[in-house]
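This is your field. Have a critical look at the following sequence-structure pair:

***
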Amino acid sequence: MIIGKKRGLSPVIATSLLIALGLVLAIIIFFWARRFIGESLQKEGSAIEYSCENVNFEAQSQGNQLSIVNKGNVPIYGVEVRKEKVGEILQSEALTETITNGATATLTLSNAPDVGTKLTITPILLGETSTYTKSYPCSVDYGKEITAG
């Protein structure tokens, strides 16, 4: 009986194929997971969350008019107006133009609050990533509390 020589895969080729397969799987998982991890919004080179600390503004309400003065150096893109105690957002709106340092803007509230109602005005900033810009509402902790007049 003649026994033929069986040729197997050499250990070097088998190891190379396993490494290549591992690399291909790692690249596939990387690109798949990348969709779930978004780019963080930036404002002037740092995370936008830290820019909220530097916002300094004054707000005043008269009837359905809300006047906002930017006293800091972080531009304000818009505001959220909340009723105190209820916590509901009365209005969240981007302004017609960004309020820069020292500038004033007036916003007409579509739902005028009653006189004496406590309102919290929270700034909305405009952040950017490498591909797009997006508005970012700051936490209520950075808002200003005013009384509707």
